[in-house]
Every structure is written in structure tokens, then in C-alpha cells.
Amino acid sequence: MLTALVTGGTSGIGAAFARSLARRGFNLVLVARDTARLEQTAAELGTEHGIHVETLTADLAVREDVWRVAQRLEDPSAPVDMLVNNAGFSVKAPFTAEDFSQHEAGFDVMCAAVTRLSGAAARAMTKRRSGWIVNVSSTSGCVTMGEYSAIKAYTTTMTESLAVELHGTGVHVTAVLPGWVRTEFHSRAGIAGTSIPDFMWLDADRLVEEALADVARGKVISVPTLRYKVMVAALHHLPRPTVRWISRAITGVRSREPKA
Q: Which domain of life does this protein belong to (predicted)?
């Protein structure tokens, strides 16, 4: 049986990846900070799908915890066939904030850890000449709306660069760029999302099914759903001043939302 390691695998998009991969018969290694929730999720998936689910409690903002997850990815006695780098959170602090801790944590979890774990998985997978690395980025990386946009732009570019580096090795690398997804991600960040039209919201399970179909086809960039494919294509072709104007407009509307 194949094995997938999913960070942030107990909620939101990560949990949807875990469910979808479990249905496909993958054994799982779930990584998250909440031990109780990890154990509950593992028990439910294991019972429902008859798979083995291993858990790793880790905070990916802590270097030692990232090192432990990297070691698990490179363990030759228990190969990991697919890595899904999903763990993340919204960074709302402005660049001018005196307290820079949100920015540091965001970079540690969504840039440094993603790069470190992708590299560890790539080393192990290239030895076997097979494997998949899936990095959950965002369409936010196509606009200019603060630290989160910058982080996700990095994630997408890093993933493409890794795909170039691993070309011909048998290891496939995909960046998934979701749009607005109905999960607890936004409520945790205090984002109501009331300014977002209903048709822009995506279902996490549908998003993951489309993403895994793209992974199976060997696509390096996966933008689930036609509406977001059109939006991302338009943003790539618009002049940068126009993208910044759009970003200011969206930021202004969102700033007037009630708190979640």
C-alpha cells in the first residue's frame, strides 16, 4: 500500500486530502499540533477505510518539530510516497506592525517548513525514482494583499523550481492554488468573508478531488475549478499596477466586514 504524509491533516483542506487519499487506499501519516484531534481523526479514518494511520504531533513553527517530520519522510524502513504540505494560517498583521511574530511564524510554517519538508521528501523519493510532492499554495499569491500573498507567491515559485530540479527523476511536484474555501481557516483568523460572493466559495472535498486529478496528470500548477482558472489567467496577464489596484479594492471591502 502507498503512504501519504499530510501536514495540517485534521482540518480544512488537509482533512479533505486525508479523506480523499484514505478512500484511495493510502495509509496515512497525519501531522498537526493538536494530539487529541490527531488521534480522533486517525481512529475515524482507520476504522472507516481499513487503513493504517500514524500520527505525529508537531508545531511546524518549531525547528526541532520540522526536523522530526523531515526524518519521518526520509525513513527508508517506512517510505512515504506522497507528501502534502498543507499546514498554514492567515497572516493579518501589516508589514509596519511593531510585533513581527505573526510574520515570523507565517514564514516559518508556510515557507521554511514547506521547503525543508519538500527537500526531505525529494531526497527520499528520488532514490526510489517515484513519488509525489503536493504543496498547497493559494490564488492569493497572484495578488498583493500582505504577507499571506507574499508567502503563497513564494510557495508557488518554489514548487515550480523544485519541479524543474526533479524533472526526469520520477518524482512529480504540484502546487495547488485554491481560491476561497469553506473551512474553519477563515473563522480561526477572524475573517467573516461576507464580502465574498457565494459563487466564489469552494467545497474542500471537490477542490481536493480536482487537485488530485491534476497530480495524477503530472501538472505542476493545479488551479481547481474553471472560475478560478479564468481568474488566475487574467491576473497573470493584467499589468501589475492593475493587479495592485484590484488588491487595494479587495482589501478595502474586506476591511469593512464584521469580525467573524
A: Bacteria
Can you give the residue range of the structural domain that contains 65? 3-255
In a domain, 48, yes or no: yes
Q: Which of 107, 148, 180, 228 is catalytic?
A: 148
Owner of C-alpha cell 486530502: 17
Question: How large a percentage of the chain has pLDDT more than 70?
Answer: 92
Model confidence pLDDT, tens digit, residues 198-239: 767 789 999 999 999 999 999 999 999 999 999 999 999 999
Contacts of 40 (CB under 8 A, 6+ apart): none
- Cell, residue 108: 516559518
Q: Is 154 a catalytic residue?
A: no
The residues facing 131 across adjacent strands are 171
Q: Of 23-32, 182-191, 212-221, which range is least confident?
A: 182-191
221-237 burial, b at 16+ Cβ within 10 Å, e below that, comes to ebbbbeebeebbeebee
Q: Is 249 among the domain residues?
A: yes
- 131: domain CATH number? 3.40.50.720
H/E element holding 248? helix 240-255
29 - beta bridge partners?
5, 54
